[in-house]
Amino acid sequence: MATLSTSPVFDSSFDVDKLTFEIFSILENKFLFGYDNPKLSPSTNHQIPLESMKSTKNVTGKVRILSIDGGGATDGILAGHSLVHLEASLRRKSGNPKACIADYFDVVAGSGAGGIVAALLFTRGRDGGPLCTADEALKFLVENRRRLFRSSPAGIFRRMFRPAKAEKVLRRTFGECTLKDTLKSVLIPCYDLSTRAPFLFSRADALEMDGYDFKMTDVCMATSADPTVAGAVQMRSVDKRTRIVAVDGGVAMNNPTAAAITHVLHNKQEFPFCNGVEDLLVVSLGNGESDFGNGNLTSSPA
């Protein structure tokens, strides 16, 4: 299992574009496009058609996992910038101006703000592709940050009405889409106060049992809900059979990478050729810790 970790301290004055460029230059060269393969050199690797790498389970034997941590100090903005750079690189290298993040990952996991980003990038839109490009997802976060996240600066009245505003924004974006309407395997956690245990929204579970299919608006509300009893969000599955009282997914699973890896290794129906961690490639994006506005960004391909 190969691991790459970069841990700069997040600061509002730090050049985000420079940071994402450095991180994803390493990811693109060493992990996503085969430079760690001794049979391929940088001088020849660019000749590999990137389009042929979409179905990674058949071509490379790797299952590619994208994991996006909870909101932290940046409410997903830093992760969003990273994904914009990655998607632009995928388009450039593939020669396909419409290439998207969902084309090149088999599984996405996200908690908190990361869960909303995952939903935006992997929910099916009207044209059959993803609901949002990485650039559109980033713009969504920037434009709606104060409506969606408790960590954003706001007065007491704005905080009181934030859940209603968040639901309105999310419902306008996702409409009636549910977990079944996602393009790939999606995993988004929350914490269920009624059972006092983590609850994992899963596309695989939704497809197998109607009682586990939830509207994407509710999924996003659940994983980003204020982690207090007063901030909890009550919801039911589409068929009304399953009821949960949800708070922030970061409480249960701030870094959902472990859940994604476990899901893949135990899901032989979707991933029959994955036999161990050596068959995984994981890109894990941190959003920064909230303590004193500082935190880490970690990318960990496996």
Automatic annotation (TrEMBL):
<feature type="short sequence motif" description="DGA/G">
    <location>
        <begin position="248"/>
        <end position="250"/>
    </location>
</feature>
<comment type="similarity">
    <text>Belongs to the patatin family.</text>
</comment>
<feature type="domain" description="PNPLA">
    <location>
        <begin position="66"/>
        <end position="261"/>
    </location>
</feature>
<comment type="function">
    <text>Lipolytic acyl hydrolase (LAH).</text>
</comment>
<protein>
    <recommendedName>
        <fullName>Patatin</fullName>
        <ecNumber>3.1.1.-</ecNumber>
    </recommendedName>
</protein>
<dbReference type="GO" id="GO:0016042">
    <property type="term" value="P:lipid catabolic process"/>
</dbReference>
<dbReference type="InterPro" id="IPR016035">
    <property type="entry name" value="Acyl_Trfase/lysoPLipase"/>
</dbReference>
<dbReference type="GO" id="GO:0016787">
    <property type="term" value="F:hydrolase activity"/>
</dbReference>
<dbReference type="InterPro" id="IPR002641">
    <property type="entry name" value="PNPLA_dom"/>
</dbReference>
<dbReference type="Pfam" id="PF01734">
    <property type="entry name" value="Patatin"/>
</dbReference>
<keyword id="KW-0443">Lipid metabolism</keyword>
<keyword id="KW-0442">Lipid degradation</keyword>
<keyword id="KW-0378">Hydrolase</keyword>
